[in-house]
């Protein structure tokens, strides 16, 4: 199958609305054509600066305006971060992502400290990822020069539904950050969340945005909303597993070389439900007790799942090694 960046919404809608078992079969077939289906990228996400964010993302427990019980914590020390990264590596993670609850990166001492953290994690032989909010082209270049492998900046939902979820930055702000990341030579990590009160058309629209970028994201996280008490979306219904499977399968078909990450929401999924997601083309997870501030399966639990399913962690820098 040819890699395409010219998908239409109509084509994606047709794939998305394929009968579910047929959709899983098609996605699994395409997955086998492009990747080793036994390999799963194992990532760990650490909140290096928590809470107090000025944004109003309706799903986020770190927004200062919501009372969610998240304590504001200043930027962690480099030594603490590297010790956590070392533990993650020893437990089997190959990508380490650092998240800071900032609206955007500012050229100050804190950014210099993050640059040092990136260098330190890179020296451990792990793929380093950051999610720090909006980013200028110059800041992206500095992160690249420090050894940053990937930058996460989700589009969250469709452009049409976006204003219902966030008012403090625009959809184009997000796309501009992705553009700056790509120009700097950093791998783009971008996906979204389902369960925000969106329609099926919005899910299709979000996938269309990602699949028609100049290059497909290296990683596409598909998140199920974690309903956090105190956020405006706390009473939204739980997302059905079939919705997650449908999103993962469609993403796999239209972006066959991307890592499709089964991301937030795994704590509410049984092993059988997670197996369906892997069958549908998911080949990346976050492991470790927390995803920034929300619960997540631990390392031991995930390694037991891998053993049961016959999966193995994907090695770091695999694509680069294959080019040598």
Automatic annotation (TrEMBL):
Start and end residues of each Radical SAM core domain: 38-266
UniProt GO BP: biotin biosynthetic process
Question: Which keywords fit this entry according to its UniProt record?
Answer: 2Fe-2S, 4Fe-4S, Biotin biosynthesis, Iron, Iron-sulfur, Metal-binding, S-adenosyl-L-methionine, Transferase
Q: Does the keyword Cell membrane apply?
A: no
The subunit structure is:
Homodimer.
User: Which cofactor is recorded for it?
Assistant: [2Fe-2S] cluster; [4Fe-4S] cluster
UniProt source species: Pinibacter aurantiacus
Record's InterPro entries?
Answer: BATS_dom, Biotin_synth/BioAB, Biotin_synthase, Elp3/MiaA/NifB-like_rSAM, rSAM
Q: What sections of the sequence does the record tag as coiled-coil? A: none
UniProt-annotated binding residues for [2Fe-2S] cluster: 97, 129, 189, 261
**PANTHER family xref list:** BIOTIN SYNTHASE, BIOTIN SYNTHASE, MITOCHONDRIAL
Name assigned to this protein? Biotin synthase
- One Gene Ontology term of the molecular function aspect: 4 iron, 4 sulfur cluster binding
Query: Reaction(s) catalyzed by this protein?
Result: (4R,5S)-dethiobiotin + (sulfur carrier)-SH + 2 reduced [2Fe-2S]-[ferredoxin] + 2 S-adenosyl-L-methionine = (sulfur carrier)-H + biotin + 2 5'-deoxyadenosine + 2 L-methionine + 2 oxidized [2Fe-2S]-[ferredoxin]
Family membership noted in the UniProt record: Belongs to the radical SAM superfamily. Biotin synthase family.
Keyword Transcription belongs to the record:
no
Which residues does [4Fe-4S] cluster bind?
53, 57, 60
Give the enzyme's EC designation: 2.8.1.6
What this protein is reported to do is described as: Catalyzes the conversion of dethiobiotin (DTB) to biotin by the insertion of a sulfur atom into dethiobiotin via a radical-based mechanism.
Superkingdom to which the source organism belongs: Bacteria
State the pathway, as annotated in the record: Cofactor biosynthesis; biotin biosynthesis; biotin from 7,8-diaminononanoate: step 2/2
Q: How is the cofactor bound?
A: Binds 1 [2Fe-2S] cluster. The cluster is coordinated with 3 cysteines and 1 arginine.
